[in-house]
Structure formats: C-alpha cells, structure tokens
Amino acid sequence: MSLHGTYDSQNIFAQIIRGDLPCYTLYEDDDVLAFLDLFPQSRGHSLVIPKRAAARNILEIDEASLAKVMAVVKKLAQAIVDELQPAGVQVAQFNGAPAGQTVFHIHMHVIPRFDGEGLGIHAASKADPAELEALQARLVKRLQG
Ligand code: AMP
C-alpha cells in the first residue's frame, strides 16, 4: 500500500537531501529544500521538501515541519510569479500512488501556468539541463533579491 508503509531512506529525495544525488537547488535552510523538478510539467516547475522529517506524505508529517515547508512554498511561488510572470500558479501535493504520488518523501509541487499552455504529462520527459540551469540562476537571484 503506497499510502501506508514505512519510510524508505533510499528514496530519490532522501538521496538529494544527503547530497548523494544532485539537484538544481533554488533555496535551502536547515529544515527545507526547494529545487527544480527534473521532469517539469511547465517551465519553472519546482518542488519543496522537508529535510528533517522522514515523512512519506501529509498524514505522516508533523505540523511544525509542514508549516516550514509551506512558508517556503509561498516564498517560492512569489519568486516564480515575479520572475516568470505566469498567468497562474498551481500548488499540488499527492498522497499514495493512486493519487499520483511517485516519490515517497512528502513534497509540494509549485507549477507556474502560462496562458495557452496545457500542463505537461506528470514526471514524463526530462528537461534540457541548460534550460534548468538558466531557470535556476534566475530564480535564485530573485529569491535572494
Ligand atoms: P509525485 O509524483 O507527486 O511523487 O512527484 C514526484 C516529482 O519528482 C515528479 O514531478 C518528478 O518529475 C520529480 N522528480 C523525480 N526525480 C527527480 C529528481 N531526481 N530531481 C528532481 N525532480 C525529480
């Protein structure tokens, strides 16, 4: 059951937190990490995760950790709106495979939505590294500004 189970410390996001796998970091503090989605559903699709909570989903995370994650979600959504000027911004979170979850470390999706552009297929095609690097530079600068 993907909704219920034990936390796997070898999941992709746990490896990213430990520094065993790279990511396009946008923001990091002691508790929260934000980075670009490698298989984006739109330009600027980002993820925000807790670093200290070994939680698979919203049912398992403690409220203090969730609050810290959401504070970064808001900060990042603002930076994305200011920098990329989307027509909308979607914040999403899935619990269990039937709900669309594929990585079992809780994460919030921040997905800018542009007029006339449909949503890309979930976790389907890998973005161009040069494009991700350019987006990372713009968003990091905006977040620090
Ligand atoms: P979910 O389906 O809600 O569990 O979302 C997992 C997300 O992680 C998807 O949007 C994937 O594109 C994304 N993803 C998977 N592997 C990586 C990775 N190594 N770096 C960044 N994003 C990833």
From TrEMBL:
PROSITE patterns: HIT_2 (PS51084). It comes from the Bacteria. The active site is at residue 107. SUPFAM superfamilies: HIT-like. A motif (Histidine triad motif) lies at residues 105-109. Pfam families: HIT. One of its GO terms (molecular function) is catalytic activity. GO terms for biological process: nucleotide metabolic process. This is Protein hit.
